[in-house]
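Chapter summary example.
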Amino acid sequence: MKTPIALTIAGSDSSGGAGVQADIKAISASGAFAASVITAVTAQNTTSVTRVHEVPSDVVFDQIEAVLSDLEVQAIKLGMLFSAPIIDAVAQGLVVFSAPIVVDPVMIAKSGDALLHRSAIDAMIRKILPLATLLTPNLPEAACLLGVSQAQSPTDIIAQGQQLLAMGPKVVLMKGGHADGDICTDYLIDVTGVVVTLTAPRVQTRNTHGTGCTYSAAIAAQLAKGHDLHSAVATAHNYLQTAIKTADQLSIGRGHGPVHHFHGQW
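The structure predicted for these 266 residues follows.
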């Protein structure tokens, strides 16, 4: 039997709630083996990002090459890429990779700090979005990629998702956590025009650090295990909702604490 392996290519969060650390936790909790490539090292906690140290792009490329030349990776999750040189290195490193790629276009931390240079947005659009089996933007990220205002209605959310599809991803998951209302709705949109909605009651908690990282990594884990895209998203959605519901069982930091990645274990 093959061991399902998911690779995360993302930045490090020193507080452990987001980034590569969250990805490894989510992938592991979802029943797959997690490998990692570090794109940046952040000095970060639950309240702020105080420093970002960019990993040299050739080192990022060498990490990718090292993993893919040895491990049989069945899915990849892309998170914080930070700069145009890193985006170039990642795109080059994934040229021959043919399995699913989940792209979480990380731009802003929960604290509001920037995690992607504005000058790198064009490189993200040109070189990363066409690689995406699934693109998973929240509403502010979708608006930033399109250069428009944040969508306010379901009709606008779906329309923006369709515009993002035209940029190259095979499927787009528009995450609705930044919308208003007691119900959070995500919209899964593919090139055939099919729209699948995933809903959950909004949980009243401030402990939502790393939700986007966790969601996309859990999807990658399910894809690595051989599940089709729709079932992978549905399973990851359920996993994330329980991780949010149980987040207040943890007491981590003074700001936006993490979700409970291992709610099924402890």
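To summarize the output: The longest helix spans residues 229-245.
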